[in-house]
């Protein structure tokens, strides 16, 4: 499979040279000396940011691994969570002597930023107020993960039991379609827009086989048409959209507010080693830009923007080349040898629960399978 270069999530992220300038040199030097965070030998001298760029793509032009971006820029934890924004028209310069990247904006004529030309380069990071970043460069293409920011949903056993539920349909239809009416019982607490879920299949930890959560299947969205006028009366809802068939017994949860996501792709703060629990959609394998769940979450130190590397366990084989005697091998035959695990891609975590996280599959050279390893970059 071809190795792809992808960008990462529906979010805003950027860089503030002013706050990172003092530590950028040391961070850049550290990144340069780290083989995993090395600059590409064919990295360009500069890149002008254009509309449609993503942070992951820009990073990939300069760095061997895009997740090394915060280290090269000397960003601390707070700056990763609340970065300043990169906008079209700005220029990312590669300072080869210092081993770091700089953000600037050209002023005047054409030339180069290293003094060999006539161009004046103004390195002026402008601190922008949060919420003014509609034109900012996102981490990855927003259309890839937007549908998954509020679904799927991981719940505990029985967690949806007390949620409002569909009790009847128009003309006793088995399944509801767009613009159909649904009759709902339960406390809606003045809510008007709801997502419809069905209690899903259990998610089992590949290591322990224990159930660590239930993935509720997202079915669609409905909107309140008329609230109940008496305690024993049903609310009337109108079906806005349908992703999967919905009907009597399915549960409602309020539509969450649209998240404003500011984060930078980064490795976890501590070593994490998890396993692929499932591939979203009920299939057994995943490829580029598909969603998978892993058995690690908030309690393991993962947060939005965490990047993990994907590995497949190396098999244990019999060493048939060993010419030792029967006395050497013993009664169990020839010695067994564990082959190294194979690193074949990256995972960008974008939604985190206590024990489970969802990630976007990126830069894969093989298919992702349930049971594969997702761990901290080495």
Automatic annotation (TrEMBL):
InterPro entries per the UniProt record, alphabetical: Bact_Kbp (IPR052196), LysM (IPR018392), LysM_dom_sf (IPR036779)
Provenance organism: Noviherbaspirillum denitrificans
PROSITE patterns per record: LYSM (PS51782)
Endpoints of the signal sequence: 1-26
Phylogenetic lineage: Bacteria, Pseudomonadati, Pseudomonadota, Betaproteobacteria, Burkholderiales
One Pfam family this sequence matches: LysM
Residues in LysM domain copies: 45-94
Protein name: Peptidoglycan-binding protein
Keywords: Signal
Alphabetized PANTHER family for the sequence: PHAGE-LIKE ELEMENT PBSX PROTEIN XKDP (PTHR34700:SF4), POTASSIUM BINDING PROTEIN KBP (PTHR34700)
């Amino acid at each position: 499979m071809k190795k792809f270069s992808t960008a990462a999530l529906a979010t805003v992220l950027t860089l503030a040279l002013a706050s990172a300038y003092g530590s950028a040199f040391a961070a850049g030097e550290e990144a340069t000396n780290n083989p995993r965070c090395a600059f590409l030998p064919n990295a360009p001298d500069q890149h002008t940011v254009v509309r449609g760029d993503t942070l992951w793509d820009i990073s990939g032009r300069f760095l061997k691994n895009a997740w090394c971006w915060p280290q090269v820029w000397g960003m601390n934890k707070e700056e990763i969570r609340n970065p300043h924004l990169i906008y079209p028209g700005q220029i990312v310069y590669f300072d080869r002597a210092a081993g770091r990247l700089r953000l600037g904006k050209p002023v005047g004529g054409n030339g180069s930023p290293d003094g060999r030309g006539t161009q004046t380069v103004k390195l002026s990071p402008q601190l922008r107020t949060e919420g003014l970043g509609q034109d900012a460069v996102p981490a990855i293409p927003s259309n890839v993960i937007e549908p998954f920011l509020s679904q799927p949903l991981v719940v505990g056993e029985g967690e949806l039991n007390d949620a409002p539920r569909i009790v009847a349909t128009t003309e006793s239809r088995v399944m509801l379609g767009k613009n159909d009416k649904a009759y709902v019982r339960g406390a809606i607490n003045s809510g008007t827009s709801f997502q419809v879920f069905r209690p899903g299949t259990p998610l089992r930890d590949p290591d322990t086989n224990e159930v660590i959560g239930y993935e509720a299947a997202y079915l669609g969205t409905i909107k309140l048409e008329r609230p109940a006028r008496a305690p024993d009366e049903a609310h009337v809802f109108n079906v806005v959209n349908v992703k999967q068939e919905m009907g009597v017994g399915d549960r409602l949860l309020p539509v969450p507010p649209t998240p404003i996501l500011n984060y930078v792709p980064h490795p976890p703060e501590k070593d994490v080693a998890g396993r692929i629990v499932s591939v979203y959609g009920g299939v057994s394998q995943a490829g580029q830009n598909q969603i998978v769940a892993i058995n690690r979450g908030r309690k393991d130190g993962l947060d939005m923007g965490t990047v993990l590397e994907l590995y497949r366990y190396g098999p244990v084989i019999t060493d048939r080349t060993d010419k030792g005697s029967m006395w050497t091998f013993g009664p169990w035959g020839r010695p067994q040898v564990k082959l190294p695990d194979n690193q074949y891609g990256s995972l960008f975590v974008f939604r985190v629960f206590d024990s489970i996280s969802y990630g976007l599959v990126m830069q894969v050279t093989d298919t992702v399978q349930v049971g594969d390893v997702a761990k901290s970059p080495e």
